[in-house]
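Journal club side-thread
Mid-discussion, someone asked how the predicted structure for our own chain would compare to the paper's figures. Pasting it here so we can look after the session.
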Amino acid sequence: MDIRQLEYFITIAENGFNLTKAAKALNISQPALSKLIKNFERVEGIKLFTYNKGKLTGLTTAGEKFIHKGISIKKMYNEMYQELREANRCLRGTVTIGIPPVILTVLFGELIPDFIINNPDIKLNIVELGAYELKKKLLLNEIDGAILIDPVNLQNMKTTLIMNDSVSIFMNENHSLAKKKGALSLKEIHREKLMILNDSFMLTHQIRRRFDMENLHPNIFFQSGSWDLLINMCNKTNGISILPTPIGDFYSESIVLKPFKPNFDWRVVFCRNINTVKDKHLLEYVEEYFINFFNNKEQK
């Protein structure tokens, strides 16, 4: 278990065992949170939560002890991280991080200015390119690290999870599928006019692979490097788009989001070459800062 998983369990308890509220507070999907609980209890062979008709109702005796100690550990972790930040005030240098455009806009609008303000002696350069170009630059040591979507599938790379969310189906409120309750399958959408990101995005290749695995031939009507344009196309046409769920936070209620069944994970990772000649202490600090920024954001 890592500190992130511990935070998930504490947040569930703090939200009255309401998985919907806890998932929203943690910025992950409810199915992913439910799966994490089941996997933990199965692997560890212990029940943390009590259930009634499949729903969480409270903590077992073991769960109460676990959460109580977990809160103390979380506090110690935050204090340790704060001390680490203070100790690293003396770090200086330049770090170049590659970030795909969609991830940069959706997730890093607050982090980058926060980092610059709190680390005046570290120059942070951002390279904005698609995932495939960033992978090439990582291998050639032309950048120090990259924010990518898991799985990365590169040798000699260290990947660390930054955020775990999901991919959703976007459509306008008048679309016939918008009125359908619950999640949608690939089979239900493959004949629809699909408007997706262009082939420089890792998500697009993941989408194609999912359709191939089910022997489905999607009707890809339009592709673009701009998720803004894709959302506007959803608004103006009867097409649908497949995009990371957090993009939905930028739009009004006229856009409807539908989850996938089974769940379509969107795992954002910090990736760096383990053979880099860069100052590893500086790069590790930047990595830790990014990870903790999202951890702390989830706690608010």
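Post-session note: The two ends are 22 Å apart (CA to CA).
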